[in-house]
Amino acid sequence: MSSIAQQKKIVEQLRSEASMARKPVSECVKDMIGFMNSNKDKDFLVSGFASKKDNPFQEKGGCLLL
Amino acid sequence: MEEQDLTGEIETLKKKLAEEQGKLSDADLILSCQKIEPITQVNIKVRKVLKGHQGKVLCMSWSQDKRHLVSTSHDGKLLVWDAFTTNKEHAISMATTWVMACAYSPSGQFVACGGLDNKCSIYPLLEEEPVTKKRLVGTHTSYLACCQFNTSDHQVLTGSGDSTCVLWDVESGQMIQSFHGHAGDVQALDLSPSESGRVFVSAGCDRAANVWDMRSGQCVQLFDSHESDVNSVRFYPSGDAFVTGSDDASCRLFDLRTDREVAVYKKESVLFGCNAVDFSLSGRLLFAGYSDYVLNVWDVLKAKRVAMLYGHENRVSCLRVVPDGTAVAGFKDSAA
């Protein structure tokens, strides 16, 4: 591609990027926090398991009846 | 248009972009979250160790059944594990070494993989001898670095050392769309969880993360604040943001809607490159694996490290949180 053609491509790309609709950071942060809070209980790595039985990776203990 | 005029316009547009992005920077993520309760305890233990690979494990992918996973290594082996029992269910020897990419299909019936052979191949797991029913999905002009099934078993998205990403139709082996724009090897990609089939992000050795429109093939957003190769990229679970892990020892959070970097996860004592990143289910925790054998767990809202998980004798090359968020698996040389 000639360098002028390359430059034109860059201009097109930048024009489309510049025309993108953006949101303020404050709104994005609020949304992120909201998402985390509504999913907090389902996130076992954060909240832990209610009981050991809920953890599929927990070693199954057991007693042997002799 | 004269070359000079074009150069001038490029400069003007870049300034305008920076201005537009700056106008919306009305808050700081970390400062805004100061009042939020910090994560005080991370109770994560090593529960299972999956031993079986002879060489460095390069890639892994969980099945949607939240129990099986596939891993590939530099010695050319692909292993499918039952993570609950640690049993190996399949072992496939590939014709190539350095299998850097692998992915479990949404139905769980196939695995796609590839590496130095420049190819992405798919194996049917339900066949008695999957290796005999191997099918070629697509070929690049350099190594296959990453791959993912696009919402179904019928399409695979690949990223390559040839600096392109391609969306392939599995049945016909045809290219549906190609994505050109990276100035260096693509190292990682991730499909949007919210814009399924329409948006994905890729990152690589050009230090940039590109967000793509899958239908047009156009790069719609570009983020290039990393100071070195970006090795890993994952979408935030809501799809509004994504995190990257880089050789510059930092992880960065980029929000798509505000079009900027909103947080950096780094520490003076964390000096080694980050090779793998993933979020916990709610996105509150960021798991990052580094070349100094450690898995750092970061509180995403505070940009503070809340735990260090050891348990590996070598660098963490890939990690993934199970689809239901119950566990995280990290691979290094031969065990998870």
From TrEMBL, chain A:
One of its GO terms (molecular function) is G-protein beta-subunit binding. CDD domains: GGL. Coiled coil: none annotated. InterPro entries: G-protein_gamma (IPR001770), G-protein_gamma-like_dom (IPR015898), GGL_sf (IPR036284). GO terms for biological process: G protein-coupled receptor signaling pathway. GO terms for cellular component: heterotrimeric G-protein complex. Residues 1-66 form the G protein gamma domain. Pfam families: G-gamma. Its main location: membrane. Keywords: Cell membrane, Lipoprotein, Membrane, Methylation, Prenylation, Transducer. It is a lipid-anchor. Gene3D superfamilies: Transducin (heterotrimeric G protein), gamma chain (4.10.260.10). The keyword 4Fe-4S does not apply. It is found in: Cell membrane. Belongs to the G protein gamma family. This is G protein gamma domain-containing protein. It comes from Macrostomum lignano.
TrEMBL record, chain B:
Pfam families: WD40_Gbeta. It comes from the Eukaryota. WD repeats lie at residues 50-91, 137-178, 179-222, 223-264. Keywords: Repeat, Transducer, WD repeat. Gene3D superfamilies: YVTN repeat-like/Quinoprotein amine dehydrogenase. The keyword Repeat applies. Coiled coil: none annotated. Transmembrane segments: none annotated. GO terms for biological process: signal transduction. Belongs to the WD repeat G protein beta family. This is WD_REPEATS_REGION domain-containing protein. It comes from Macrostomum lignano. The lineage of its organism: Eukaryota, Metazoa, Spiralia, Lophotrochozoa, Platyhelminthes.
